[in-house]
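Researcher: Please generate the 3D structure of the following complex. Treat every line as part of one assembly.
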Amino acid sequence: MTRAAGRALAAALIVALAAGQAMAAQGNAQNGKKVYERKCWWCHGKSGEADGPGAAFMIPPPRDFSLGVYKYKTSGAESPVPRDEDLFSIITNGMPGTSMPSWKEVLNEQERWDLVSYIKALTDMFEEGKNPPAIAIGERISSSPESIEKGKKLFVEAKCVECHGQAGRGDTMKKLKEDGGARVWPRNLWKPWTFRGGVEAENIFARISNGIPNTPMPAHAADKTGCGKLSVEDRWHVVNYVMSLADPDRQVKEGATVVPGAQVDALPKDENDPAWDEIPSAAFRLVPQIIQKERFFIPANDLIVVKVAFTADKVAFLLLVDDRTKSIVGDSTAEGLAWDELKPDAVAIQTPATVPESSEKPYFGHGDGSHPVTMMYWASGAAGQPDTSKLLTASGAGARTEGDAGAAGFASHASYHEGTWKIMMTRKLTTPNKDKETQFEIGRFIPIAFANWDGSNGEGGSKHTMTTWYWLLLKPATGSEVALYPALVFALLVGGQFAFSIIGRRKKR
Amino acid sequence: MKMLKPVLVVLTGYLLLKFGIPFIGSQLHPGTWPVVPTSVMKMYMFFLIVGTLMIYSFSEEGYAAVIQPAVNLYVDPARGTARMAVILAVGALGAYVTYQYVKPTFDAPVELRSIHPAPPSSVKACVKTYQLQGLKNPFREDKASFAKHVEEGGVVYFQNCYFCHGDRMLGKGPYYDGFNPLPANFVDVGTIAQLTESFVFWRIATGGPGLPSEGTPWVSAMPVWHELLTEEQVWKVIMFLYDYTGHSPRVTAPVHH
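Model: Done. Output below.
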């Protein structure tokens, strides 16, 4: 950027910021009240005490405006309240991974500033007409392998690992709650798109500096003595380390509906076989079962990553689920971390018992009377006992029969490491029980769906997370015609033109 | 340079198809940019090129003018390098087009689905059967308690529906992206704004599994609400939907026999 352009941009930013300040000052609490009573109270409650009709169905719970305590703020430690811009930003952009949506498509800028004024008036924590200054962020240290390495060390030294896990996937050593008592799980740093308070470096810097008020996340900004905390420079290194953890394989690709099965000479021997690294993956959103009784509203896991490999007669599925706890019933560590009664972690793969010829599929939740589904189910089990797996056929919720795992060559193998379950299930492509079990055909699109139970989150039975129907395709190896035909056409065209050219030149002579 | 004219004609035709038609469409329907589908584009371009060549090579003279530069390229001894480049380029283009035809594709099967399938004449929910024709929202008449009923409907909405259809009614609740088809957007003019209350009652009461097969009941995540809500709750939530979005239910003209 040229200096002139830089100056122009800076000027534009100052104007924009000044306009923002002006808007904050102009926010009309009376108008904000009207908007609030139409759009916001359903969760935040009529008097802002987080007791609206929707509040009981969500974790994290809606903010209680009467307390004036906000989780995400860019003001410094000396200010108990956030900046006006923080409130405006949350109303505008929403909070990913929570029930708070972005309001910018629905409310205009003035209405959003009006809301800022109104919710500030719901508590006496804010000083009239004052907007606290932004936290000092020093000079941004750009990311580099050295900085990331330093950040990684600091991540251990500052005890971030105790809650966020050795690898940063939120596999906590402690059971954590908000001040109000609500369940809170530490963020899985491999999925920055689930960060509530923004994914920009400055957002993460503010988070590390201020902590998250009202939650166990402590402030790490060094005080005047600089004792035991992180300096501005150190915090930037941690920011760079955190940002380096983002894993695109753990993000749903928009419009991706196919699990691409890869043909291999021999199946990977277990879930940790490095051969899996070569297999392409697909990631799908897990949503809570909110469709049938008993409905389930407060999931913890949000994603399943799937890989499939197959040979001429067998197929292997690898399921990866980031789960903050290894739930083994009766295990004292697991029991200590559980909310509600501890149940085993579990996953299931669902496919139609008969692959449909037309577009008509079984109902995506356990099939239906005339269209049964096959399920490959695995559960982590109880202390002192091995994990379990079952081959099931279902025709509707609750209507299940168990199949012959031996005849189908069905087996599973699973392990938990640093916040991730890896579960491998293998089966023969075809089984003797052709009416009740899916026959996997190479080159054919087969509907496939997944389910997950997080045992430490009280999930069991109908309380679980699930996906809708996607597609499994066991991709046949490409034949030689793919290279042969273009080569033939090329040879013919080039040869023909040469012939034309030679004949033409002869004639001319 | 006699080739210039036909080339310009073809180029102008291409630009008209590529940008002109979408532009006209965008003027007719603001906010859209309706491009010409690739297959149609290919067909138009084929006729355009063949037609242009025919017109410009109609006379003997014109034929020579169009063809001669190409023939010269192949026979002129002084233009060996250009000739080699053209020969290889034509070969490569042919190989590329062939590859596009023979390469395996792994696109998921297209699933068509009727958004507003024809409703049945009656709906059975639990033990009661409702005749949809002429079915009315019992709370509409009670104008005095309108605000109360709307608010009660809102409570039902935020405890049951918002998870998918969202706070903003845009069909973007916290779990919307995990389902296919996506939850309905009530603000959009294509949903409740063009439906009668009895149709909406049917869709809510029997949910996804109550759809006829053209509505792909096997994928819809809409619960069978008569199993979870009372009849009154359904009518109240319908009141709320129309009030919040500002739409009015479609009214069927009375039928005179």
